Predict the structure.
Amino acid sequence: MYLFYTPDIEESHFLSEEESAHCVRVLRYQRGDEILLTDGLGTTYYARITNPHPKHCEFEVLRSEKQTKHHHFHLHIAIAPTKNIERLEWMIEKCTEIGIDEITPLLCHFSERKQLREDRLKKIILSAAKQSLNPYLPKLNSLTDFKTLVQQAQEEDKFIAHCYKNEKHLLKDMIHRGKSVLILIGPEGDFSEPEIEDALRLGFVPISLGESRLRTETAGVVACHTAVLMNE
């Protein structure tokens, strides 16, 4: 069953114009057909179409269920956007499918991309959440300066992944089940040494994601999957 996104379901029983068009014109749902909805906050709604209009499809709610998260911890990844934006979009899509809670694009000393289209990234997150039937929509933060983020970080476990030959721990050995996690992933040119020093001073633990040197977007997916897997 296809999942439709309805953030205002408590106030309105109409699909948005975009969701209505997809429901009626693309999927060809008709009056009386049952559909599955989510508010993005963890509740799914089973509903029946009452007016299959292609611009404002109306429905009646049959019942609702609060869904349990697939994992019982909060996973936040802060990552420097790649010069080729399609790589970051791919990473965000895959992490949403795997199970991430929060994403922060990170502005670092060696960042090559300093502007983002947040609206496009949010659409990618929404599409991936619907495709994977995830009723919890990950939060996308605005592009944030590295120093601001590390100073304000509130997660219980804080990690920074880098490629310098300093002493590092494998991420899989450092995950504590049930604890909130923040993982920093740097740009193609890595974090600067002062950035790493600042992070370590503020309680971040240096980590490795394995023996291979990974692209930024690959590192993001590996970090996400590792954290989720170690919390199974």
